[in-house]
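Hey, weird one. I pasted the Protein bimA sequence into the form twice and got a warning about non-standard characters only the second time. First submission, copied straight from the form history:
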Amino acid sequence: MDIDHAEAPVVREAPPQRPTVRAVEPESVKMDEVLKSVLDLLKKLGLGYVQLSQFQCQEAAHTFTSLPRAQQDTPWVLAQLGRAQYEQANYAEAEKYFRRLRVLAPTRLQDMEFYSTILWFLKRETDLSFLAHELVDSAWHSPQAWCALGNAWSLALDHEQALRCFKRATQLDPKFAYAFTLQGHEHVLNEEYDKALTAYRQAISADRRHYNAYYGIGKVYEKLGNYDKAYTHYHAASVIHPTNAVLICCIGTVLEKQKQIVQALQYFSKATDLAPRAAQTRFKKARALLAIGQLAPAQRELMILKDLAPDEARVHFLLGKLYKTLNDKSQAVRHFTQALSLDPKASQQIKEAIESLEEEDGFDDSMIQ
């Protein structure tokens, strides 16, 4: 048998395999989702930044708190949240954000001038001194460090040392508007009004939108009794920062001092809407309502105010005036007496008010300026 010619077994060839196609579509979808999330994040960060730049503080805070938790707990976002609360005079809340920022980024200098001012408002002398010490030790060449040190001296009532620190800050950075404004505030405390005006104007030259300096000029003119100029500068500040309740209240105050009570009431009402828990603003609103004879609204405001500031003598004095006008002598005596116990220094005015209960006199705010 010729094995070379033997019938060979039939070998079937396997059909050609189709080339493997990788699942690129799911990867593409995943990349699109990642890109979308990044763009959404950048959009929110940008929106919050713009809102805060325009002093839409509540909106900015809402935007930043809508970020993912991991993004909220970053130094930059914490600084923006702290600024948003600071600009609304919510100093205790602002302090929490800046304190957390210091834990995460102890070498960060940006916005530390605001943190030191927040501690100044809260009268946290030890914390402020510690912050100033840390900043000067780590970055003595920065204006933020010298602002913090100046605020620490200011809280300790050493205004001359504070001024030296603020001036050093402006030497380090002549465009650092906030340091000029802090200089102005110290000059006001020293009753050096011409120097204060110069400092505030230097702040405006450094930053035309620095509303704090316009406020400072308004405060100087108010102290000097030039209410027209005070109004002009308070109004200029409020145009830049339209949601600042303090500025709105200041406009109302100068109108009230010019006996324009109805117009003043409009500003006090707006300021109260912006800051419902601001006792001083609500007090001025109640006083204006009482002055124009709107007794029921005045009483409502005073009841709220009594809960906000139960130990404030002026509130009880005004309640005494209200009940005197309503011819409720027992309640009038009760609140006048409570005012006397809370503020013995005002005993002469309060006693005169009690003695005048039998008289038909008009509204008198002698004690409650």
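That's the output from the first submission. The warning seems to come from a hidden character in my clipboard, not from the data itself. The longest helix spans residues 24-53.
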